Amino acid sequence: DAVPNWIWAAEHQPGHVPQVTCYFRKTMSLPPLSRATLSIVADDWFEVYVNGNIAVRGTASDQIQTYDVSRFIRVGENVIAVKVSNREGQTAGLAGRFVTIDRQQQTRAYVTDASWKTSLSGSIMWARSSYIDHRWPQAKAIGPFRDFTARLAATNSTNAKATAAKTVANSASSEAPAQSQGQAPEQQSDETTKQADDPFVALTKQPVAGGQLQAPREFIVEQIAGHDDVGSVTALTINEFGQLIVAQEDGQLWLLIDRDHDGKPDAKRDYGKPLKTCQGLLSINGSVYVTGLGDDGLGLFQVRDADQDGKLDSVHKLVAFDGENIEHGPHGIRLGPDGMLYVVVGNHSPLHEASNASSPYSRGYEGDLIQPRFEDPGGHAVGVHAPGGYIMRTDLSGKRVETFAGGLRNSYDLAFNSQGELFTHDSDMEADRGTNWYRPTRVYHVLPGSEFGWRSGWAKWPDYYLDVLPGIADTGRGSPTGMVVYNHAAFPQNYRDAIFSCDWSEGRILVIPTVEAGASYRGEPQEFIKGQPLNATDIEVAPDGAVYFVTGGRGTAGNVFRVVWKGAALRPNLDVAKGLDRALRQPQLYSSWARQEVALVKQELGESWGDAILSASRDVARSDDERVQALQIMNWLGPRPDAAALAELAGDRRIAVRRAAARMLGQRADVAAARRLQQMVGDPDPFVRRRVSESLGRCAGGAGPALLQKSLDSADRFEAWSARLALTHAPVETWLPVILATDDQRIFLQGGMAVLARRPD
Question: Fewer CB under 10 Å: which end of the chain, C or N?
Fold first, then answer.
């Protein structure tokens, strides 16, 4: 038998190893196999991944254990990846043998030796076969493990005797077999036996109470997990690996994985309980961002697996919120096109500390016309002042906090479409039904600085007020919860860029296709899935294009469901697209798993990445979608286009490209950017003009009424809104005389609102 070597990183001398984690990789090409086993020993603690799937976890032992890893192997390139942590003493090492048996019963062994790659740091994707490890150095062979085979035989003999004894014992006992180490008996499956070192438990999928769900006949709705599996679920996210993370309302997190590789989760793992409650989840950059109640109150938290034991245990509070009403506190989290975290917050949880003075929404006011205000007789929201519910954004460290929009009641989630436009779905006040101040649930297109006019009691602003933005779709009575914008190819084209929104109280999921209407959109709500009950709380899109949604909240039954279209194969084949094309055609770009796939392409292209993606953004032969996606990817992953490149793109004949360039110029916010934006104020597209105004508002000095005249005079509420907001960022003395002298009614009204915002006295 081939003898494995003890191996370790070359940086450390044997017997002088600090407490450190070392990562190992071995890549091999394999034919169709009938069996594959891994025998391994390591000092002190180890995890084994096969093609990115966690296969084995163990600790230091004199015994060498053998594990069947056949289910993780595929034909072609495979990678065995091992993470070893030295936690005690100054000795460390890894030794193992990987044995394959092909369909012709030919055996081959791969052992640990100097051909293995090693590193003292591992990125998020280090265990996957697609990871590029050419910069990893070779492992250092410390010496052969000469009695490896003898010790392995002794361990196998001991395990065989133990198994026989347990089999006899079970014939006279009601207890199930409890094999503590090694391979489970072949007649038992993962669904019936859990190895002691296997943290995953098979999902049981209890039947759904309340009858069948109603969905369009071309779709299939399938239950993935039931209440006994996941409890009452309030939030869902999908991580960089395409795995589901679900949160119970008591803060317990579960990681759901697909162990049999059929495209659907079939097992769960305890992922920790970092908070007391959970209202929103976002997996990004190896961390999970959570909104909920911690030991020191409501907040936005970053949680990580600091000790690498498979559970989220490190909790860092980024942003604090006041108040104790969890259901009207911080909710959904999204990564925005600018790389900041966007969080929607209910009307009972103001920021604990004031947001940055540069916030897009910085001048909220009550706006009462009739005093005294008549408040809700039931006491709801009495004493809650503007902005009520709001959307905030922060950098990933939580150091820069801005209020982005206000005047909401209690929106639960938010979502970006493929153009980077933001939407939220606000709730109604059911007790107001029948009054003239009742506002139904509605979808809002959220611009920087948006005011939506919710105020307590009867003081809600009507839609015709000049200083409020209307909704793009009214959705009647309900309780909107999770939402996502679908931007994948696995559903029919008419679902592209449509909003999927859960309605908890009405037991339904709406689909809201959006069509451009001037500088904004118009929504067309339709019922997509209906159930009694269907307490849907959150919804996401998976890498294969399937839609997952979860149920629960207020102690109701929790489930995980998967929705697929009958008429198309899932997993649209992106493999035909190579290199940069794969990144530019990556669906669902605003998801964590999509950004991770793009990051792998960047890693693969190396130094050629920057020139290649900038060239793609300029390539008129490419589609609008590809060019806009190239610009958005550069905004996240770099290199960001310089002023000259953006100035060129701002004059492109493609409207979509000019829109993207206008936004990115605003993020630069320098003199050159402001000058180019000023040249774009007369663009024939109202969407471009709106974004130009938004970007000018970020530049020092803003812009005056002469420059913004076309937009200020626009009958389009959204275009005029952004122009007025840009006006408020310029010194009042530079534009007030122009407003007072104009005989244009629209410009005078918009200018008057700008004056009131800047100088309410």
Answer: C
